[in-house]
Amino acid sequence: MGSIADFQPGGAATLTRPDPMLPRPFRVHRVHQDTRDTYTLELEPTDGAPLAWLPGQFTMLHAFGVGEAPISISGDPSRPDRIEHTIRNVGSVTAALVTAGPGTVLGVRGPFGTGWDVGTGRGGDVVVVAGGIGLAPLRPAILELIAHRADYDRVVLLYGARTPEDILFTDDLRAWAERDGIIVEVTVDNGQHAWRGRVGFVTQLVTRAGFDAVRALGLICGPEVMMRYAAQALSDRGVRPERLRLSMERNMKCGVGLCGHCQLRELFLCVDGPVLGYDQLAPLMSRAEL
Ligand SMILES: Cc1cc2nc3c(=O)[nH]c(=O)nc-3n(C[C@H](O)[C@H](O)[C@H](O)COP(=O)(O)OP(=O)(O)OC[C@H]3O[C@@H](n4cnc5c(N)ncnc54)[C@H](O)[C@@H]3O)c2cc1C
Ligand code: FES
């Protein structure tokens, strides 16, 4: 793997660090189909060196010969030896990633960006609001909460999917509710006859959910319009804007603050985000993507 040297003014090389633009080879260990268009890939570093990362961070996943895409890490933060990404097939790069079978070597740059900083919710309630594929970047935060469950009061997960067939991590959702002490509420936009659960937008769950807003930490990920309404609804319930965190997953190319693709006024979302406080984001969220 390549490296770049850091030089002191005198010119002597003092240390080397990995070049953030060079993908590191990872081998696909396992692929799990979550829904008709979404797959979770488990990747292992070919050199065996673990990749430390924080819940909420993303990598640039490289399908050689096709291109690369920013994808959040969706696995267990206590397993740096095996990283998971949950990917919806929407275009050329994601199609190449989800069809990469076991043994395929993919490139990984990163991890990049800010994390959920779950630990700041200790001693209070945590409300997690996810829409669609937005549950994937939140899964590591939920696994961290479960690993330290006694440090938190109520943990509430409010999850909305388009249809019952689009619900991600169904086994996890069941285990989190039945085994791990998480209050899990799921709703779908469109339910067919066989669906016995709730129908409606996830934002409607926010108004009914039981939590102590004054001491709550809110974590939100999903389509931007859903995040805007969810943040407003949590804020209306009394959660302080600086205790509300959203993941802004806009267009990204370099991932390291160089190209400007992700710029939102003074913010470079790849380094200042993707996870940012609602106190910072509220005035910016209505701006069109640059
Ligand atoms: C920080 C970050 C984290 C992300 N995490 C995940 C993840 O965990 N799982 C996942 O499936 N996807 C994630 N995405 C979105 C993913 O990067 C895009 O879907 C991917 O780049 C599309 O590339 P493509 O070549 O397959 O499709 P393209 O041909 O480039 O695009 C296909 C369609 O997807 C839309 N699209 C492209 N980029 C985005 C985006 N950033 N957000 C929403 N729509 C987009 C395009 O407008 C187009 O309609 C993340 C994006 C960011 C910025
Ligand atoms: S993606 Fe290049 S500056 Fe953020």
Could you write a compact summary of the structure shown?
With 290 residues, the protein is of the alpha/beta class.
Bound molecules: flavin-adenine dinucleotide, FE2/S2 (inorganic) cluster
- List the uncertain runs: 1-13
CATH class placement of the largest domain: Alpha Beta
Task: Supply the helix-strand structural class.
Answer: alpha/beta
Q: How much beta, percentage-wise?
A: 25-35%
What's the number of helices? Answer: 7
**Level of helix content?**
10-25%
The name of the CATH superfamily of the largest domain reads Nucleotide-binding domain of ferredoxin-NADP reductase (FNR) module
Q: Give the count of structural domains.
A: 2
Tags for this model:
290 residues, alpha/beta, Elongation Factor Tu (Ef-tu), domain 3, Rossmann fold, 2 domains, seven-stranded mixed sheet, six-stranded antiparallel sheet, 7 helices, 20% helix, globular, binds flavin-adenine dinucleotide, binds FE2/S2 (inorganic) cluster
Write up this protein:
By secondary structure, the protein is an alpha/beta fold. The chain folds into two domains: 19-112, Beta Barrel (Elongation Factor Tu (Ef-tu), domain 3); 118-285, 3-Layer(aba) Sandwich (Rossmann fold), CATH 3.40.50.80. 20% of the residues lie in helices and 32% in strands. The protein contains seven helices and 17 strands. It has helices at residues 92-98, 135-147, 170-178, 202-208, 224-237, 269-272, 278-281, and strands at 3-7, 13-18, 24-33, 38-45, 58-63, 67-72, 83-88, 105-112, 126-131, 155-161, 183-188, 198-199, 217-221, 244-247, 263-264, 267-268, 275-277. The strands form four sheets. It has a seven-stranded mixed beta sheet with strand order 12-11-10-9-13-14-17, sandwiched between helices. Strand 5 and strand 6 (67-72) form a beta hairpin. Helix 4 packs parallel to helix 5 (224-237). It binds flavin-adenine dinucleotide and FE2/S2 (inorganic) cluster.
